[in-house]
Specification:
With about 290 residues, this protein is an alpha+beta fold. The chain contains 6 helices and 16 strands. Strand 2 and strand 3 form a beta hairpin. The longest helix is centred in the N-terminal third of the chain and has 13 residues.
Length: about 290
C-alpha cells in the first residue's frame, strides 16, 4: 500500500483483501469465557484445530492460567453463533504450568464427544492450514479475535452475554525491537498495531470505539483477543489480484502487545505443534506430515 494512494485506491485494496479472507477464519474462532457464582465474563479467544481424529481448542496459556487462579468455570462459544460449551479448566495443556517467563504462552484443550456435539456452525483448521515460513516480512495479516471492550458480562441465567468479533488487517512491524522485553524473533511475530487510518470491510473510514461509543485505540484496547490466530492472507511480492482465498494460512497465536511501540505480538505456530507432539504421542505421525518444530 503506497503512502501516495488515494482514498478510492485504498478502499479498492481493502475490498480486495477482504474478498481474499476465507470464511474459515471466523468459523474456526471461538470466544473463551469464565463464570463464577452466576457471573459470566469474557476471558480470551481460541481457534478450533483438528489433528487426525482429535479435536482441540488452541489459545494463549495466560488466558487459562488466569481462569485457574480465579477458580472460574471455562466455556467456549463459536464466533458465528451458538451455545456455550463448558470445558474443564484443569484439563488444558500449557507450555509452562506456572506461566512465569514462558516465551511460548500456548495452551491446548482436547474436546470430547459431548463437547463436540454442542458446537454448531464451526470449522476446524488443520496443520496443513499453517504456514511455518520464517520470513513473512512481505505478508498481509488478519488478526481475528474478541476484544473484551466489545463484550458484556452476564450476571444471571436470564442475562445474555454478548460479544463481537474483530477482524483487523495489518502488516509486519517495521520499527525497532530493541528493548522489547520478552520478544524473540525465533519464537515470535510482531505486527503493526498503530494504523493511521482504520477502514471497514468496504474500505470506508471508521472510528475504533468501545460498545458505549467511547474512543478506543489499537493495540491498547485489544485485551480479550489473547489466544486468537494470526492469519497470513497473502504476500505482497505477488499482486493481490493473484492471491487465492484458499492460500490463507495461520502463522501464530496472539499472546501480547507492546504499547510503547504500538505492536501486536504473536507466538509462532511451531510452539503449538511442539506442545501437541509432547502431550499427545498418538498424533505424532500426523504432526510429522506437516509440522516444523
Amino acid at each position: 500500500m503506497s503512502e501516495q494512494s488515494t482514498p478510492s485506491e485504498l478502499a479498492a485494496l481493502v475490498r480486495a483483501l477482504v474478498a481474499r479472507t476465507p470464511p474459515r477464519v471466523a468459523a474456526a474462532t471461538v470466544a473463551i469465557v469464565g463464570s463464577n457464582s452466576g457471573n459470566v465474563r469474557h476471558l480470551g479467544t481460541g481457534t478450533l484445530l483438528a489433528v487426525a481424529d482429535a479435536k482441540f481448542v488452541v489459545t494463549a496459556a495466560h488466558v487459562l492460567l488466569a481462569a485457574r487462579e480465579q477458580e472460574l468455570t471455562v466455556a467456549i462459544s463459536p464466533a458465528l453463533g451458538g451455545v456455550f460449551t463448558a470445558v474443564t479448566a484443569r484439563d488444558w495443556v500449557v507450555t509452562a504450568a506456572s506461566g512465569v517467563n514462558d516465551p511460548h504462552d500456548v495452551a491446548l484443550y482436547q474436546l470430547d464427544d459431548r463437547e463436540l456435539g454442542r458446537l454448531d456452525a464451526v470449522e476446524f483448521v488443520r496443520i496443513a492450514d499453517v504456514c511455518f515460513d520464517k520470513d513473512i516480512s512481505e505478508s498481509y495479516f488478519i488478526v481475528c479475535g474478541f476484544p473484551a471492550m466489545w463484550s458484556t458480562t452476564s450476571h444471571s441465567d436470564n442475562d445474555e452475554m454478548k460479544a463481537r468479533l474483530l477482524q483487523y488487517g495489518t502488516y509486519p512491524f517495521k520499527g525497532s525491537v530493541c528493548g522489547l522485553a520478552g520478544f524473540d524473533p525465533e519464537r515470535h511475530i510482531l505486527l503493526e498495531g498503530a494504523p493511521d487510518d482504520i477502514l471497514d470491510h468496504k474500505g470506508n473510514p471508521i472510528r475504533f470505539r468501545t460498545r458505549s461509543g467511547h474512543p478506543a485505540s489499537i493495540p491498547a484496547d485489544l485485551a480479550g483477543i489473547s489466544g486468537c490466530s494470526i492469519w497470513r492472507i497473502g504476500d505482497f511480492s505477488t499482486p493481490v489480484s493473484e492471491w487465492n482465498i484458499n492460500d490463507a494460512k495461520i502463522v501464530g497465536v496472539q499472546t501480547g502487545v507492546f504499547q510503547s511501540v504500538s505492536a501486536i505480538k504473536a507466538t509462532r505456530w511451531n510452539s503449538v505443534t511442539t506442545l501437541l507432539y509432547a502431550a499427545f504421542p498418538d498424533l505424532r505421525a500426523s504432526i510429522n506430515m506437516y509440522a516444523r518444530m
